[in-house]
Inverse folding.
């Protein structure tokens, strides 16, 4: 086993365990922190895949802002009390894990099987995850999508301010 | 990370997605459900990036085209992040508004839109 | 991870041993200097307040931090009964992590083998990302303590840091736009060019350009807010929150929180020096040009002195000097300004810093594209526009009553919760 595979395995285990923690933790704050660990490790995985810019954006956007918003909301609504709002019905729980298992099996049989047979190794050219190349692509081939995304963000800002400002 | 095959990334992504799905079904706290959706979005991001790194572009004729095929996955991830940010701002705003209206956030009790 | 760092690094010093050496130098420096900073802050603060300060332990009280450290080590480590144990223990460690991680891309001198640890091509984004992680330690500490005041401190720090990070990001984006690079080493090297492209004997420190001055001031304010120092120390406001997020912490855990805070302050001073104050050059003078001139005037001793001042050996000295200048500035602010109110804090961040920084972004574009005369014209037009808007808004303006403020401000907060629970 090479060093790369070992590093990948460690990260994969952390990612899966922390994702599991999001679901099984009874305390919302712990669940959110588990998700923070998940996103941070995912960012490290992106670095390992040489996606420098996206790894940094992952930390900046997900761990730095989105999860902070989640935690802020949880504390503001004071949902900190333990074992609140956990699904009590065993039937629903087993249905949920069954669905998840079926999903994994479906993906494994239909996608991973063929991929494992026809594995060619990474083919991406050198330096395609760097800030420069991502920026160039954003402002050439994907410029319309980029501008529309900025409009979407503006709509998001206006919408959230409207929701927060409403008096009832 | 040399020597890691593509299907390892896809399997990891599938596992994350499955756990997220299970969480959406199990949990009754809308904020946690929201977080599970973020988990699923990130699983999708991971597979986008894995394919962006490993995918070969047999149909591309020019170098620019081949380059763009490799960039597509990254672009998708950039836009997923932008959408997720907007979504979280609005979604958490809605949850806060609901909480203020009815002082509880059990998802099973949020049924006022039912006909 | 080593692969990533190695792949993006220049070939020089490209081995694990050099990397370990760089890390050792950085860690040794930070760990050794933090006690000195605490001594400096206490002494300086006491001079500001017309008293003597710690002067008994060692010469000039220099050994005072060591005595403090020994005291903190041997103090009883109290863990309150109702805390969330795991997170309560984790919080100081989580607070310390970004304080050290942020040093990874700060360059000290021109030698690429010794500094910075990783000369990655996303260095400025890295700094933003890591500093955004700084809030978790405070937040966790506040939440895990299971104490109303600590929780309020944690909430405040979250809101404050998220708000001020935006302005900081836009201020740094101005620099990125001007340099066209996210590498900190390149940002520093860009500042060694002739001032405004026309004054050959001076260096183009970004603080000396009009847009850089604005961006620098904004960065300076946001960096004080990001490190939770006075006058932005609302998360630990002693007078209202009983030192906020670390109320329940004692002994070494308390010391670790403080170490993280001082290391972050020093790091931000270093970033400010690298991005706006010309990095490792002591004065905005073009040393090579001046040395050539001195040679022309047949003053070889002056030429060699000038070369030494601008050279690689003296570089770390100037950089560290600028970091100390930054710390002194922090202390000066703390001694001078009273703490902001919460609504004032939010107003400054959202209504002044962010719009000014965004406007400055346009100014940079004009400056880089058309030069200073176009910038002057644009500024005049904008000023007239601004006056118009202000006159328009001055009629029928009412002071904002933000929902967020009423929720987080403690006095109003209690009323709010009572109101919610009653109805």
């Amino acid at each position: 086993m090479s060093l790369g595979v070992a590093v990948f395995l460690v990260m994969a285990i952390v990612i899966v365990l922390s994702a599991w923690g999001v679901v099984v933790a009874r305390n919302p704050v712990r669940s959110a922190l588990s998700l923070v660990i998940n996103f941070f490790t995912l960012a490290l995985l992106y670095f390992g895949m040489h996606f420098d810019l996206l790894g940094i954006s992952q930390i900046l956007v997900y761990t730095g802002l989105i999860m902070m918003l989640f935690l802020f909301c949880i504390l503001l609504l004071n949902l900190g009390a333990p074992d609140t709002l956990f699904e009590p019905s065993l039937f629903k729980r087993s249905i949920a894990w069954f669905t998840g298992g079926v999903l994994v099996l479906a993906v494994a049989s239909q996608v991973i099987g063929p991929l494992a047979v026809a594995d060619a190794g990474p083919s991406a050219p050198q330096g395609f995850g760097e800030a420069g190349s991502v920026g160039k692509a954003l402002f050439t081939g994907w410029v319309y999508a980029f501008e529309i995304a900025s409009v979407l963000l503006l709509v998001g800002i206006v919408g959230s301010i409207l929701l927060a400002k409403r008096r009832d | 990370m040399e020597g890691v095959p593509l299907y390892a990334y896809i399997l990891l992504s599938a596992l994350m997605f499955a756990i997220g799905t299970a969480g959406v079904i199990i949990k009754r706290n809308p904020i946690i459900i929201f977080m599970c959706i973020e988990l699923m979005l990130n699983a999708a991001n991971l597979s986008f990036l894995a394919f962006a790194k490993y995918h070969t572009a047999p149909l591309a004729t020019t170098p620019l085209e081949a380059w763009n095929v490799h960039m597509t996955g990254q672009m998708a991830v950039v836009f997923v992040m932008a959408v997720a940010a907007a979504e979280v701002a609005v979604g958490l705003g809605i949850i806060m508004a609901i909480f203020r209206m009815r002082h509880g956030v059990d998802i099973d009790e949020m049924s006022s839109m039912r006909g | 991870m080593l692969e990533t760092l190695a792949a993006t690094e220049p070939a020089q010093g490209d081995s694990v041993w050099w990397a370990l050496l760089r890390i050792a130098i950085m860690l040794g420096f930070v760990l050794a200097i933090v006690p000195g900073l605490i001594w400096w802050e206490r002494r300086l603060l006491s001079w500001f307040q017309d008293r003597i300060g710690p002067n008994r332990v060692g010469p000039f009280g220099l050994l005072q931090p060591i005595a403090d450290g020994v005291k903190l080590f041997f103090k009883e480590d109290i863990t309150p009964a109702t805390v969330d144990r795991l997170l309560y223990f984790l919080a100081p460690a989580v607070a310390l992590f970004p304080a050290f991680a942020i040093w990874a891309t700060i360059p000290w001198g021109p030698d690429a083998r010794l500094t910075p640890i990783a000369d990655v091509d996303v260095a400025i984004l890295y700094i933003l990302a890591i500093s955004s992680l700084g809030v978790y330690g405070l937040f966790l500490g506040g939440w895990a303590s299971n104490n109303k005041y600590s929780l309020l401190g944690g909430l405040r720090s979250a809101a404050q840091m998220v708000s001020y990070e935006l302005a900081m990001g836009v201020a740094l984006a101005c620099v990125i736009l001007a340099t066209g690079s996210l590498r900190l080493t390149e940002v520093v090297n860009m500042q060694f060019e002739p001032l405004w492209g026309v004054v050959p004997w001076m260096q183009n420190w970004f603080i000396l350009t009009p847009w850089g001055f604005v961006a620098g001031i904004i960065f300076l304010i946001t960096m004080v807010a990001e490190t939770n120092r006075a006058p932005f120390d609302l998360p630990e406001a002693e007078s209202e929150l009983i030192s906020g997020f670390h109320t329940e912490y004692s002994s070494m855990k308390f010391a670790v929180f403080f170490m993280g805070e001082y290391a972050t302050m020093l790091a931000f001073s270093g970033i400010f020096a690298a991005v706006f104050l010309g990095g490792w050059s002591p004065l905005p003078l073009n040393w090579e040009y001046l040395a050539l001139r001195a040679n022309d005037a047949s003053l070889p001793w002056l030429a060699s002195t000038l070369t030494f001042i601008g050279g690689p050996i003296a570089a770390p000295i100037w950089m560290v000097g600028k970091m100390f200048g930054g710390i002194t500035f922090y202390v000066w602010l703390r001694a001078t300004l009273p703490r902001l109110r919460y609504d004032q804090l939010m107003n400054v961040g959202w209504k002044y810093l962010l719009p000014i920084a965004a406007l400055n972004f346009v100014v940079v574009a004009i400056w880089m594209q058309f030069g200073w005369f176009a910038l002057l014209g644009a500024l005049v037009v904008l000023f007239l526009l601004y006056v118009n808007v202000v006159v328009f808004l001055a009629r029928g303006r009412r002071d904002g009553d933000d929902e967020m403020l009423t929720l987080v401000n403690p006095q109003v907060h209690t009323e709010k919760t009572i109101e919610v629970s009653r109805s």
User: Anything to note?
Assistant: Chain A touches chain B through 87 residues (CB under 8 Å). The radius of gyration of chain A is 20 Å. Helices of chain A lie at 3-24, 28-48, 52-76, 90-117, 131-139, 143-165. Residues 127-168 of chain A form one domain.
